[in-house]
Fold these 3 entries.
Entry 1:
Amino acid sequence: MKDLVRGKRIVVTGSSSGIGWETARVLAEQGADVLGVDLNKNFDNVEEFYRADLSDPRAIDALVDVLPEGIDGLVNNAGLPPTKPANLLLRVNLIGLKRLTYGLIPKLSDGASIVNVASLAGFGWPQAVDAIKAAEHLDFHNIDQFIETWKVSNEGGRSYFFSKEALVVWTMQNRWTWRDRGIRMNSVSPGPVDTPILGDFIATLGARAEEDNRVMDRPGTPEDIGPVIMFLLSDMTSWIRGTNIPADGGMSSNLLCGMHGL
């Protein structure tokens, strides 16, 4: 099918590389006007580019101010790998992502679609519910206290795992938040994807990464993920709400089968 997002104005964060770059490319190919956001300048595949540091609340608020009205889609893709300090990672992967989303709601068109790029790393959210509930009050000013209280430092990649667990849950919680305007929120959870930060995951996860490599046929590619994001931004998915779609080569199914002896 062609032109699935023809005429839609879609914001893609982290548009300069990896999954964000490919998402912007496939959206533009399918007829969308892409507004790219990144810390690193790259005008590939975008109609307009906005440079913004999504770890800084002032930069996020300034970005919200300058983005136009009539946005039909938001792809929350920008994120930091588990090798980054936990304070900075949570700023970008969770707190800043939420601030940008809430700030843009008034500028979204009725019927708009929000897609959060989560991760297979968020699979274990049921075991982190208490911390996730506590994170509802997490903001830029109390991150260090939260990290200490809930043991979500970057040791062993825990801060990254937690950010994605919380993002999957936040997606589910917002299944009907803006239903009166037809605005929906969903997420996509890639498994290991061959991007510039894949090495960070391998270095951090160690034996877990080796196990993934043993059971998978190959890592994913941005080309495996971009079309799934585009699908959720299209008018074909107006009744998919609060759903997390694994795009992981079967890894989440493998984990579930192992957990339940199947």
Entry 2:
Amino acid sequence: MVETPSVSRQNSGEADEISQLKIGVLALQGDFIEHIHMFRKLGIEAVEVRKPSQLAGLDGLVIPGGESTTIVKLINMFGFAAELHAFVDRGGALWGTCAGMIVIARELTDPYPEPLGLMDICVSRNWFGRQVDSFEDQFEFNGIEGGPFLAVFIRAPVVESVGDGVDVIARLADGKPVAVRSGNRLATAFHPELTDDSRVHEYFVAMVKEGATVR
């Protein structure tokens, strides 16, 4: 499991390495701009990705929260699906948040949308209810320091089961998995970009740095 250093505690050499990373956020729909702002606060070059060709040169990619059916439809419309598989296969780090978790799953308990199969997890959409049922909760996140993480859940999914090689790195008090990792792939059911706590973004940056072989 990656032990993610705090950006503020990095020496100048490590800061230089981080400044050379480039992370994209899929900007077809959803709250992509909030992720970009968070990465830029950490000193990371972060860019909007609207075309498959823009995956070239990226070290990591986030598929953000939003409306999963719409995101999948646009991914297919713009020809992203095969390119996303190629991106992950060649070592690019991938993070799906909320709707992004649904998009990258192997299987859903719902009949639609058809996920991309980029991570060996089965996911239930809207597990916690509708928009009016949004809530905050805190829990330990394996791999980040500093105590429990306070997370925002908005029409959030939950992980029902994981395949071989997928680690559960955060659970709610009832045991439901809300963050999982498999190698260079991360999925979270919540929205860390909607808080002032950058630790999960730092965790992903450490993943990106660990396997930055795309550029």
Entry 3:
Amino acid sequence: MNSIDLSLKSIITFIYFLGIVSLSVVFFSCSKFPLNMPDATENQMLKEEVSIGVVVAMTGRHAEAYGFAMQRGFELAREEINSRGEVKIKFITVDDQSTPEGARAAVQYLVDQEVSAIVGLAISTHLKAVAPIAQEHGVIAFSSVSSAAGLSGIGDFIFRTSLATNISIPSGLMVTQKRLGYRRVATIYDEIDVYARNSNEVLRQALETNGVEVLTMETFQTGDIDFSQQLTNIIALRPDALFISALSQEIAQIIKQTSVIGVPESIRIIAPDLTMNEVQKAGDAAEGVIGFIGWSNLSDAPGNRSFVRNYRTKYGIQPEPWAAQSYATLYVLTNAIKIAQSPDATLIRNALAETTDYPTILGMLGKFSFNPDGDALYDQIIMIVKDGKLQPFE
């Protein structure tokens, strides 16, 4: 793609293939998934309608940042898939009300409805709460957004589309540290949220492995709105970079307050889960902030341009990363259903486990695989805010 620097693409491609090669030996020698699957051809049709549960936040604090976008991505994918006639997908959608309790109730309801799989489950805290329920009943739980390391390892029916923190953060650090040269950093994270705690811990380990000194790890709690004391403490230590591990609302507020508090431009701000939603809310303060991203509208991955065009046509807005990841999730799941030629959850699970280099709209290359734990593997995109937009980090 003309707008992407060739050296960046080389780095991304190297990271991707290095990860695939290093993991492939483990996959074939100690994969936890059974490898027996029925034979299937691409043009076979599954006549039986497959019921899929969708758990997203339609009310509460996560609805606007995650739930609505996810629902749009799922629905667009379902319409496209059903129009092709090979598989017919029926959704049973339940609001998790942005709480772990709501997520547990939603998953239990869908298990009682005897769905083959449940998609959605955005928040790592929620997935951690519900994964044992799905695993116990042999129902696939396929999260399109959560990324705290280790959650897919809860059981062999648990899969994820987001790059787990132990995959995304080390590769993101490799690129950004080489370019920016930071040696002394600070972190700030939500000590309540599962993703934020895990992200910060992975960051700490990866930074120390790379010889980067972590000066301080400031904390806050979900729902906090004032971060002035933490930012003041960070400024006093004069780090080269500040890493933010949080959910959408707090990411936007922290970035916005860096400008108010007067964080100097010499301190580079990196928020691994940064999207345009946070950029827009943070305003001018977001300029120069860096994110590690699984999807971009600038990518030439297979079908991405069509996805962006169709999404804008249907909804009248630009697609969000969580919509894109949910869209890709349903396509990956449907491919497994086609291979299984059955709505049986175990057969679909087996087919999902075999997913290798499946073409999606994710990353720059679009090649999607699962590691032995059910976590996604594909090339990551590093982006930076320039002129109020997320653009390739060069």
